[in-house]
Amino acid sequence: NHETDAEYWVYTAPEDMILVLEPVVQENTSFYVYVYDYDTDQVITGATVKYPTYAYKLAAGDKVYIKGQGSNSGSDPWKMTINATMYSGNDVSGLGHGATVEDPIEIVPGKLHWVDNSAYATYTATDDGMLSLKMSYCTVTVNDAKVDGISVDGLSVYKFAVEKDQTYNIYLKAYNPLLVQAELIIPQAGSVDKPFEIVTGGNTVPK
After folding, report:
1. Most CB contacts within 10 A, which of 64, 83, 128, 198?
2. Per residue in 32-88, pLDDT tens?
3. Whole-angstrom Cα distance, residue 130 to residue 162?
4. CB distance 150 to 191 below 8 Å
């Protein structure tokens, strides 16, 4: 609950991690959230989780300050809550990797992955199915073939078929950092990812 137009928080990362900040504001409030390097005062570019929620990669010992700035159309002070979630250890995969093809990010479904604008990654399938990668819009190639995405809730979803025990080489290219959420989908027969084959004559749902 702020009389001034900005408030500040500070945070020091105890380990390599991804910091997710979710602003919650009252109606009719204009707001901005900025994250700065504490020592250099440089703005840190975040990755879109789902607007207005952003994620930031921090190394162990990194100190940042977070600026919440806002105003509203009424006479009362504007209000903002910033929900912070820290992901590290088993929650994430590949922090600090992906800059070269020799050191790729290992894609692990159920974990979060960070990409600094572009990255090399690999995925070894544990089952037959579809690998889904959800993130901001970017260019995705798998084994040198481009994969098109679809828009879902303000993000892009890229899916491609995988076979058990096969390894796939992935390249991601964007203009800003990416937070990648991976999921292995086992399609049900008759779904959009595993449709029935149409034949001449009557087509019924197979038993």
Report:
1. 64
2. 889 999 999 999 999 999 888 999 999 999 999 999 887 766 666 667 788 999 999
3. 6
4. no
